[in-house]
């Protein structure tokens, strides 16, 4: 089946609405098509985020008490008013319902941001690399001068590659990966028995973003922009050690950038 046909079936596959033959066709296709597999994983990530309780408004106890009190007061007034006042009560109740609905909509948090969706993809790709050892690295090497040129012709940018082995974060290798709708570089490092994936791709034209950290599904993530590149580091390392790794990479990139910009002078 072609990718277009598979994309139309992915929703039904995720909802278990397909027959056995169609389900098997989708599964076989995703085993050999990274783009359709990524589309399925994006759908899973989105649905996982939509189950986050923070996306749903839950009224405070004070608001619930206020509504109950208002309803009790209206019942008391209703018992005292003549039948002719029913029209006024209906109008007042309609206004109250509109006000409550408006308050709920205004206070309801927005859906997941683009950064949240990328973070979920980062987690999914990291987990997949751990579950599929043969996919962890496409170029296994601790030599940055072997890993960096390996990406030539495979990406539309040249990712910076550092090897802080002297600080106990040795380079293991690199691979091609797919994030946010584009191909990216994934650099793999190791700290004792823990693996670190560092995803790299060109950032947009916005000003450099300060470092941000997060924790998703038991993994620590650190995200920053530097020298025209966007970086996402993820590992099951504790936050302090992953932050140490990020700072080492940032410092080395800074030194490399300053060295590249330093003017050369020819001797007379």
SSE layout and pairings?
Layout: H1 3-14, H2 20-32, H3 34-50, H4 61-80, H5 86-107, H6 114-131, H7 133-136, E1 139-140, H8 144-150, E2 171-179, E3 182-191, E4 194-202, E5 212-216, E6 219-226, E7 229-235, H9 239-261
Antiparallel strand pairs: 1-2, 2-3, 3-4, 4-7, 5-6, 6-7
Helix pairs in contact: 1-2, 1-3, 2-3, 3-6
Question: What do these coordinates show?
Answer:
The protein has 268 residues and is of the alpha+beta class. It is built from 9 helices and 7 strands. It has a 7-stranded antiparallel sheet, sandwiched between helices. Helix 2 packs across helix 3. The N and C termini lie far apart (69 Å). The C terminus is likely disordered.
In terms of per-residue confidence, which ranges show pLDDT below 50 for 5 or more consecutive residues? 264-268
Q: What is the residue-averaged pLDDT?
A: 82
- Distance from first to last alpha carbon: 69 Å
Structural class: alpha+beta
Give the strand line-up of the largest sheet. 1-2-3-4-7-6-5
Largest sheet: 7 strands, antiparallel
Order of helices and strands: HHHHHHHEHEEEEEEH
| DSSP strand tally | 7
Q: Rg, please? A: 27 Å
Give the overall form. Answer: extended
Q: Supply the number of helical segments.
A: 9
What portion of residues is helical?
A: 40-55%
SS strand fraction: 15-25%
């Amino acid at each position: 089946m072609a990718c277009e046909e598979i994309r139309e079936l992915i929703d039904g596959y995720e909802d278990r609405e397909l027959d056995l033959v169609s389900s098997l066709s989708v599964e076989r296709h995703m085993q050999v098509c990274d783009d359709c597999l990524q589309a399925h994983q994006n759908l899973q990530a989105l649905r996982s985020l939509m189950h986050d309780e923070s996306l749903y408004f839950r009224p405070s106890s004070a608001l619930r008490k206020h509504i109950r009190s208002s309803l009790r007061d209206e019942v008391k007034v209703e018992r005292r008013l003549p039948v002719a006042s029913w029209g006024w009560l209906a109008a007042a109740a309609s206004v109250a319902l509109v006000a409550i609905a408006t308050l709920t909509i205004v206070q309801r948090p927005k859906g997941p941001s683009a950064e949240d969706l990328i973070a979920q993809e980062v987690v999914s790709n990291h987990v997949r690399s751990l579950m599929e050892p043969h996919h962890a690295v496409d170029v296994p090497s601790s030599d940055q001068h072997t890993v960096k040129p390996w990406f030539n012709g495979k990406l539309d940018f040249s990712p910076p590659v550092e090897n802080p082995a002297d600080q106990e974060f040795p380079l293991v290798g690199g691979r091609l990966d797919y994030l946010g709708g584009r191909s990216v570089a994934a650099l793999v490092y190791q700290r004792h028995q823990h693996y670190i994936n560092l995803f790299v791709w060109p950032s947009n034209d916005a000003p450099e973003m300060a470092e941000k950290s997060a924790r998703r599904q038991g993994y620590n993530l650190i995200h920053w922009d530097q020298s025209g590149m966007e970086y996402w580091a993820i590992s099951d390392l504790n936050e302090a050690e992953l932050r140490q790794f990020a700072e080492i990479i940032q410092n080395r990139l800074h030194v490399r950038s300053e060295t590249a910009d330093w003017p050369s002078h020819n001797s007379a």
